[in-house]
Amino acid sequence: MDDATRTELEAAAFRALVHHLMVKRPEVQNIDLMNLGGFCRNCLSRWYQEAAAERGLVMSKEEAREIVYGMPYAAWVAQNQTAADAGKQAAFQQAFAENVGKKD
Length: 104
Known about the structure:
By secondary structure, this protein is an all-alpha fold. The protein is 72% helix and 0% strand. The protein has 6 helices and no strands. The chain has helices spanning 3-24, 30-37, 41-54, 61-69, 73-80, 86-99. Helix 3 (41-54) crosses helix 4 (61-69). The radius of gyration is 15 Å and the shape is globular.
């Protein structure tokens, strides 16, 4: 497979993931994604912002989040985020420490 085709397929897979989280499963909580998968919507938006920066494009955290959330982050939180119990919060602290900021 050539690089251009690979990039097109990766982009399509990213768009499908964002659509799935945005449209089909907006009720899935970021804390659950982080606790189970080691990443969440905020991670996706950070990776998007970092990829833009690597290409010399300036993109704010909020701009990147709006791409992933499909709306301003505060609006998504108000519409979809629920309170997490102490167990989920403790698991999140561990998952965040183990996964966020690490480079593969």
